[in-house]
Amino acid sequence: MNRGVTADIDLDALSHNFRKIKGLTSGSPVFAVVKADAYGHGAVEISKRLVAEGAERLAVAFTSEARLLRNAGITAPVIVLFDPDPADAVSLDIIPVVHNLKSGRLVSAEAARRGVQLNVHLKIDTGMGRLGIYPEDMDTITEIASLPNIRVEGFMSHFSEADLSDLSFAREQISRFRMLKQRLSESRLKPKYFHLANSAAVINLPEAHMDAVRPGIMLYGYSPFESNGTGLIPVMKASVKVHSVRRVKSGTPISYGRTFIAKRDSVIAVVGIGYADGYRRSFSNNADVLINGRRAPVAGRICMDLCMADVTDIVRDSDVAEGDEVVIIGRQGEEFISADELAAKAGTISYEVLTSIGSRAARNHISS
Length: 368
Ligand SMILES: *Cc1c(COP(=O)(O)O)cnc(C)c1O
Prior knowledge:
Distance between the termini: 28 Å
Shape: elongated
Strand content: 15-25%
Helix content: 25-40%
Radius of gyration: 24 Å
Largest sheet: 9 strands, mixed
Bound molecules: pyridoxal-5'-phosphate
Low-confidence stretches: none
CATH superfamily of the largest domain: Alanine racemase
Number of helices: 12
Structural class: alpha/beta
Number of strands: 19
């Protein structure tokens, strides 16, 4: 249920970011990652635009997400990264990622039952330590590849730390993956795609681009690195309304725990967003919002449904009234709050900020 937060999703910014990725990878095929409802941006609309831009495949985490895309009429190939439900894989015509022999057998058996051949990608664990077959384990790889009703269209791996300044472990992962590719080139297996480049590797590791790249966060306008010097444009603007405004005397405590006490006669805007909307409690006394194109600091603890902002300095120049727009993420006038800024304040990453706030908001997809 939306509780009053609006997320404007700029599809033209998405297109811009997609083209940036194309530019950085000399036109490499893009497997666009639209898991978690496109990082909180709305998977259906995002996917439609990305397919129109030429994304070669879409990638989601679970079959339920693939079903959503299919039900919306999206026919582009969809890779399901983590949940190769065999029955769904066949009926939804998706590309499951097989991460061990058991999942390979299940997919092949189901495909055989339905009399089809299914393309799959094999997940290789080059160092992420999460899912996949070790690159040395050629027995398992060849056994899966020889299952009767699956065709191994691709091999994929995933970086654990391509976003660090020290890229030595990322390079080690690339070299393990390349060694496997080399070994396979001597076998009968001729997969079309070797792919492992997430956004960090798209930006920083050209040697990882290989046959296709698999960016997520970049599409939405954020870099996995601290400095966002990549010319990406943030796609989401999250905003809400001023619920009410109150004038308080110096010494007045604000919100739970009295962690904010007005040091002067103050004007406090009550804002209709709280931690139930993904506006984290760690933003208490710690983040800014934008009102009338100016920054207003959060005053006191974030509540479940509401928070308060100190607009004393703003009302000196302009009125703040019930119903005014409050920007949580994005631009208002000359000011801008990025998901990175909020993430830094909460000790997390832009990914978590975007998915937490975006997935709960009422989204407007905008295109000029
Ligand atoms: C989420 C994910 C990506 C995209 O990562 P970004 O850092 O957002 O670019 C790529 N591959 C896999 C397997 C993922 O789970």
